[in-house]
Specification:
single chain, 453 residues, alpha/beta, FAD/NAD(P)-binding domain, five-stranded antiparallel beta sheet, 12 helices, globular
Length: 453
C-alpha cells in the first residue's frame, strides 16, 4: 500500500490536466487535481471556445451583406452584444459543468485553490498539504503585458476582451500574432473601428511569408488599419478615452487598448524554483520526450512547457503520459508537422514547413506551388476577398512537407491535408487525386507547375 495520499496530483484543471487525470483514474490510480478558478482552463473558458463563438457571430454582418448578391432582402441588421455575451457565457457554464461531471465520474478528487509544490512529493492547496507519488504541472499560459511601458495597465488582454460588457467604438490591438488578428476580425465584424499596432513588418511573422502577406491584404479589405514598425511608448488617459503614444511622435486615440503581445507560461509562484524544476527565461518548463522534468517525480504538459501552445497537443501529451505511467504502454507524441489554424477573417490553416524553413533545412531542391483566386462564393456579391493556397515539396523524394491556406474553410481543409502528410503523401499522389468540384479544396489537387526558383 502506498504511503502517499495520491498516486498523481495534477496542478491545473485545463484540457490537458483534466484529460490526463481522468485517464489515470480510469487505470486505477488515485488522482487529485486542483484549480484556482473554474474547471476547463484557457481553451474552454478564456480561449478557443468563447473566441470561436464570437468569431462565428462576427461573420454574420458580412454574410448578410453578401446575401443581397444572391437575391435576399434582409433589411438593416444590428448586433446585440449583451445578448451574444449572455449566450456565450451560458455555453461556458454548460461546458464547465461537463468538465466537473467528468472528473467526478472518473473518481478524481478536486481541490479548489492554487497549487504550490512544497517538495518533490508534496502539493499545498488552500493551506493544506497532500503527499503524492507524482506531480503533473498543467497550469497553461497567461497573456503577457509589457511591464516597461508607462500606462500599460490601462489596456486589456484577450481574457477581458472575451467578456466586455459593451463594445468600444475604437480599439487599438497591439501585436501581429494569431491572437491579434483573430480579435481584429471579431471586433471589426462587430462594427468596431480597429487599428492594429504591429512592431514588425506585418502580421503572423512566424508563419509562411505568403500567408502573412495575403492575410494582411484581406484584413485591410475588412477595414482594419494595420500600422507596422510601430513601437508603443506610453498609454495615457485622454478625456475619457485612451491615447497611445508611438515612435515617430504618432498618437492613436481610441476607447480601448488590447495587448496581444504573446502568452507566457502560468508558472509563477507554484514552487517550481523551490524544488529545482528547470525553466527557460519566460518560465516555460523544460521536459523530455516523456514529459518528464529534471525532477524525477515531476512532469509537465501543455502551454506551461516549451512545446507548442495548442490544446490538442496538451491533451495528446497528457494521454501519452498516462499510457506510459499507468497502463504499461510507453507512448511518445510526434510533435513534428502539427497542423494549426488561425481564426482570422478570412481564416488560416497550415501544416508542416514554411517555404523559408524548407529551404533552410532540406539539402536538395525545394519546389513551391502556389495559387490564389477569388472563390465562387464571392462572385455574385462582388466581394474581392481571395484565397491563397501553397504547397512545399521536397523534390528528391516528392514528399509534400508543407501546406498553407488563407481563405474560407481553411482550417477544415488543412485538417485533411495534415492526415495525408502524416501518412507520407507525395505530390504525385496529390495530383492523382480527383478533386471535388466546385470547391476551393480541389485546388490542392490541381497545382501542377512549381514556381521558378
Amino acid at each position: 500500500m502506498s504511503t502517499y495520499d495520491f498516486d498523481l496530483f495534477t496542478i491545473g484543471a485545463g484540457s490537458g490536466g483534466v484529460a490526463a487525470s481522468r485517464r489515470a483514474a480510469a487505470y486505477g490510480a488515485r488522482v487529485a487535481i486542483c484549480e484556482s478558478t473554474r474547471v476547463g482552463g484557457t481553451c474552454v473558458l478564456r480561449g478557443c471556445v468563447p473566441k470561436k463563438l464570437l468569431w462565428y457571430a462576427s461573420h454574420f454582418h458580412q454574410e448578410l451583406e453578401d446575401a443581397a448578391g444572391y437575391g435576399w432582402s434582409t433589411g438593416k441588421a444590428t448586433l446585440d452584444w449583451g445578448k451574444l455575451n449572455d449566450a456565450k457565457n451560458a455555453e461556458l457554464d454548460r461546458l464547465n459543468g461537463i468538465y466537473l461531471g467528468m472528473l467526478d465520474r472518473a473518481g478524481v478528487t478536486l481541490h479548489t485553490g492554487r497549487g504550490r509544490i512544497v517538495d518533490a512529493h508534496t502539493v499545498e492547496v488552500a493551506g493544506k498539504q497532500y503527499t503524492t507519488e507524482r506531480i503533473l504541472v498543467a497550469t497553461g499560459g497567461w497573456p503577457h503585458v509589457p511591464k516597461d511601458i508607462p500606462g500599460a495597465e490601462l489596456g486589456i488582454t484577450s481574457n477581458e476582451a472575451l467578456d466586455l460588457a459593451t463594445l468600444p467604438k475604437r480599439i487599438a490591438i497591439v501585436g501581429g500574432g494569431y491572437i491579434a488578428v483573430e480579435f481584429a476580425g471579431i471586433f471589426a465584424g462587430a462594427g468596431v473601428e480597429v487599428t492594429m499596432l504591429v512592431r514588425g513588418y506585418g502580421v503572423l511573422r512566424h508563419f509562411d511569408v505568403d500567408v502573412g502577406s495575403a492575410l494582411t491584404e484581406e484584413l485591410k479589405g475588412h477595414g482594419i488599419a494595420i500600422k507596422t514598425h510601430t513601437r508603443i511608448e506610453a498609454i495615457e488617459n485622454n478625456d475619457g478615452a485612451l491615447r497611445v503614444r508611438c515612435n515617430g511622435d504618432i498618437d492613436h486615440d481610441v476607447d480601448t487598448v488590447m495587448w496581444a503581445t504573446g502568452r507566457w507560461p502560468n508558472t509563477r509562484n507554484i514552487g517550481l524554483e523551490d524544488v529545482g524544476v528547470a525553466q527557460d527565461d519566460h518560465g516555460a518548463i523544460s521536459v523530455d520526450e516523456w514529459s518528464r522534468t529534471n525532477i524525477e517525480s515531476v512532469y509537465a504538459i501543455g502551454d506551461c512547457t516549451t512545446r507548442a501552445q495548442l490544446t490538442p497537443v496538451a491533451i495528446a501529451d497528457g494521454r501519452a503520459l498516462v499510457q506510459t505511467l499507468y497502463n504499461n504502454n510507453p507512448t511518445k507524441i510526434d510533435h513534428q508537422g502539427i497542423a494549426t489554424a488561425v481564426f482570422s477573417q478570412p481564416p488560416v490553416g497550415t501544416v508542416g514547413l514554411t517555404e523559408s524553413e524548407a529551404r533552410a533545412t532540406i539539402k536538395g531542391h525545394v519546389d513551391v506551388y502556389r495559387t490564389d483566386f477569388r472563390p465562387m462564393k464571392h462572385v455574385l456579391p462582388g466581394r474581392s476577398e481571395r484565397v491563397l493556397m501553397k504547397l512545399i515539396v521536397e523534390r528528391e523524394t516528392d514528399l509534400v512537407v508543407g501546406a498553407h491556406m488563407v481563405g474560407g474553410d481553411a482550417p477544415e481543409i488543412i485538417q485533411g491535408i495534415a492526415i495525408a502528410m502524416k501518412a507520407g503523401a507525395t505530390k504525385k499522389q496529390f495530383d492523382a487525386t480527383v478533386g471535388i468540384h466546385p470547391t476551393s479544396a480541389e485546388e490542392f489537387t490541381t497545382m501542377f507547375e512549381p514556381l521558378d526558383d
